[in-house]
Amino acid sequence: MANEKQSKSAPQEKLRILLVDDHPMVRERLAEVIEREPDLTICGEAEDRFGALDVIATKRPQLAIIDLTLKDSQGIELIKDVRSRFPETLMLVVSMHDELLHAERVIRAGAKGYITKQEATRKIMLAIRTVLKGEVYLSEKMASRIAARALGSPKAGNVSPMSLLSDRELSVFQMIGQGHGTRQIAESLHLDIRTVETYRARIKEKLSLKDANELLQYAIRWSETGSPM
Question: Which domains does the chain have, with CATH numbers?
Answer without folding.
Answer: 10-148 (3.40.50.2300), 161-225 (1.10.10.10)
